[in-house]
Write a structure and sequence with these properties.
With 429 residues, the chain is an alpha/beta fold. The chain has a single domain, classed as TIM Barrel. Helices cover 29% and strands 22% of the residues. It has helices spanning 66-75, 94-107, 130-135, 153-163, 189-194, 201-218, 230-241, 252-256, 283-295, 310-313, 330-339, 346-360, and strands at residues 2-9, 14-20, 23-28, 35-38, 43-46, 48-53, 78-83, 111-114, 142-143, 169-172, 185-186, 198-199, 222-224, 246-250, 300-301, 378-388, 407-417, 420-424, 427-428. The strands form four sheets. Strands 1, 2, 3, 4, 5, 16, 17, 18 and 19 form a nine-stranded mixed β-sheet that branches. It has a five-stranded parallel β-sheet with strand order 9-10-13-14-15. Helix 2 links the parallel strand 7 (78-83) and strand 8. Helix 4 crosses helix 6, helix 6 packs parallel to helix 7 (230-241) and helix 7 runs parallel beside helix 9. The structure holds zinc ion (ZN).
Length: 429
């Protein structure tokens, strides 16, 4: 039996949490156990759940593996991640999703729930084996061609209709392909000054509007990946006001950084560490995204952890890969953007980073309240420290964090997966 002593559950008064057989058995004062985890001053949150992680295995093990990516997840306080399908081979069959699922079980650092591709090979031509992936051992419920948009309206409609049979959801990477050919950076003043091809907000917003209408038309569930513009927020708010089954996520980087980073980075302009899909937008967009996450229009935070090896990022802007890592810094960035600003309290953080993503992914054993009977999926977090972000200290196989040089609040001290510590004293177990 493990006892966590004096943890502030969701930021409340200090309590002891007793854990037995992987479950929370009692919450109270003066509880005893064989193993004691001292949590003075630490906040206890339900284990974080990521709806959007690129683990890169199979195919790009030079960037990340299930083993290294789930270590990074545990270090970030996550007890479950959804592994995106744009691997090589693509996760578009029962065989591939079961392989990823099994690798997650073997690694054991957090639960790995494979996302299934919507279309075969992410080619946008034919639906993948959605039913076979749903029926597989991996029990896939989230389907996405992420990295690419399901731009064909007929295919998108069919996918939305198909996943209803098993209560699945289509997670759309909203990017109208013709409007973003060659696009490099948010279309606006900064892209104009830097001479980079603009990436207009309307390319995202047009797809989100279309998909909300399609989801309503067929009565299915739509999830919008990495919302990045104020206009997208307005469309999702409108869809929700109609009672449609639409959910949405925002990344930590879109809550904190703007396109001006591409111009005014510490090492000068055109630093591709800030190149990401969708692109960093403007301060007005950041403000709208924060407000939308606070009022629940945007349901959750998802990292879009996108590891890339050095040679794919440290090159000229136009040739660089798109994406940034984010698992190990997600909670700190959310504290900086949402808690320090008074927009969310710790109960709100738990809701947006654990409860709601678990519900969207239909994960039965995650995102549950910290109370007796729940699985002991627990993150212990110290919000009082502030430390400079050090890429060399990260456990992800890749180093492409956009926060190097920034000082961020907070540190994950411990992560427990069904009562078993995966991180203790800020280190992997
Ligand atoms: Zn994406």
């Amino acid at each position: 039996m493990i006892v966590i002593r004096n943890a502030r559950i969701l930021g409340g008064e200090p309590r002891d949490i007793l854990i037995a057989n992987g479950l929370i058995s009692e919450i109270g004062a003066g509880l005893g156990g064989d193993t004691v985890i001292e949590a003075d001053g630490l906040i206890a949150l339900p284990g974080l759940v990521d709806l959007h992680t690129h683990l890169r295995e199979p195919g790009r093990e030079d960037a990340e593996t299930v083993e290294t990516g789930t270590r990074a997840a545990a270090m970030g306080g996550f007890t479950a991640v959804h592994a995106m399908a744009n691997t090589s081979p693509v996760a578009d069959t029962a065989g591939v999703v079961e392989q990823v699922w099994r690798r997650g079980q073997e690694a054991g650092h957090c639960d790995v729930h494979p996302v299934g591709a919507v279309t075969s090979g992410l080619e946008g031509k034919h639906l993948a084996e959605l039913g076979a992936m749903a029926d597989s051992q991996a029990r896939v419920r989230v389907f996405s061609d992420d990295g690419k948009c399901v731009s064909d309206a007929v295919l998108m409609r069919r996918a939305l209709e198909y996943v209803k049979a098993f209560d699945g959801v289509v997670a759309q990477h909203a990017q109208e392909p013709r409007l973003t050919e060659g696009a490099q950076l948010n279309e606006g003043e900064v892209s104009g000054r830097l001479g980079l091809t603009g990436w207009p907000a309307v390319a995202e917003e047009a797809i989100i509007a279309r998909d909300c209408l399609l989801a309503a038309h067929v009565g299915s569930r739509l999830h919008v990946c990495h919302v990045s513009t104020a206009g997208s927020v307005e469309i999702i708010r409108w869809a929700k006001s109609k009672g449609w089954n639409v959910t949405a996520e925002v990344t930590p980087h879109h809550l904190l950084l703007t396109d001006s980073c591409a111009e005014a980075s510490p090492v000068g302009p055109y630093n591709p560490i800030y190149k990401v899909n969708p692109p960093l937008r403007t301060q007005e967009d950041v403000t709208a995204l924060r407000e939308a996450l606070a009022d629940g229009t945007i349901d959750c935070v998802a990292t879009d952890h996108a590891p890339h090896p050095v040679e794919d990022k440290e090159t000229e802007w136009a040739a660089a890969a798109m994406g940034m890592i984010g698992l190990e810094t997600a909670l700190s960035v959310v504290q900086e953007a949402m808690v320090e600003t008074g927009l969310l309290d710790w109960a709100g953080v738990a809701d947006r980073m654990s409860v709601r993503p678990a519900r969207i992914g239909r994960l039965a054993g995650q995102g549950l309240p910290l109370e007796p009977g729940s699985p002991a999926n627990i993150t212990l977090y110290d919000p009082a420290v502030r430390t400079p972000v050090d890429p060399t200290a990260m456990v992800s196989r890749s180093r492409n964090t956009p926060y190097e040089g920034l000082t961020l609040p907070g540190r994950v001290v411990a992560t427990l997966l069904r009562g078993r510590p995966t991180v203790l004293d800020g280190k992997l177990v």
